[in-house]
Write a structure and sequence with these properties.
Layout lengths: L6 E2 L4 E2 L4 E2 L4 E2 L3 E3 L4 E2 L4 E2 L3 E3 L4 E2 L4 E4 L12 E4 L4 E2 L4 E3 L8 E4 L4 E2 L4 E2 L4 E2 L4 E2 L4 E2 L4 E2 L4 E2 L4 E2 L4 E2 L4 E2 L4 E2 L7 E5 L2 E6 L1 H6 L4 H15 L5 H8 L7 H12 L7
Parallel strand pairs: 1-4, 2-5, 3-6, 4-7, 5-8, 6-9, 7-10, 8-11, 9-12, 10-13, 11-14, 12-15, 13-16, 14-17, 15-18, 16-19, 17-20, 18-21, 19-22, 20-23, 21-24, 22-25, 24-26
Antiparallel strand pairs: 26-27
Length: 256
Amino acid sequence: MIDPRAIIDPKAELAADVHIGAFSIIGPEVVIGAGTWVGPHVVVNGPTRIGRDNKIFQFSSLGEMPQDKKYQGEPTLLEIGDRNVIREFCTLNRGTAQGGGVTRIGHDNWIMAYVHLAHDCLIGNQTIFANNASLAGHVVVEDQVILGGFTQVHQFCTLGAHSFTAFGSGIAKDVPPYVMVAGHPAAPHGLNVEGLRRRGFSSETIAQLRRAYKFLYRSNLILKDAIEQMRSLVEETPEVGEMIRFLEKSSRGIIR
């Protein structure tokens, strides 16, 4: 399963059925789980942990040191879960000591070509990163977020679950759950209705989330007052409660 032209450090730990393509380099302190396929010309440096059944395509660089001038060689980590697809020319950097020490990618993510995930980013499950999407350091992307091609996200921003960014979006503040944004700088463009339908949200839940969106974006209310209006929907629609919790913990402010 390992091409003889690949270079595997003796301190790397690979499951018995891991595939490593020609001219790939697997460094020390790299752990790769069962069923993972690594194509040709991939470089994986450690400390990096990669789970099961991932597919990593040619010319990607995983686990390289963070692009942070404060980094002084501390033993930080890149952690990748299971069943992720990482396409060509992606760069996923390790964390920094100041940022928690780990860059983490969850499960079942689809990461297209030329995507950059910087140090200390935390990515949830079932996300999609279209070509050339880039995250600066310390960005949080929650579950089932879709980033359009060439989306750029400023450091310390959070993208809430089920949110959607259009092609070429410039994100400098937090994006609330369920919301679509577009533009540079990005602005809100409605609820991610089609995405919610595809994921099995009921028409009643979507209608309530639309009401919450109107309180937040179309009622000329300050944020505090919009949240108070949204609370009336929580008992019937817990998903609105998730939206409120996101808004209340945002330290960077939301796109509005």
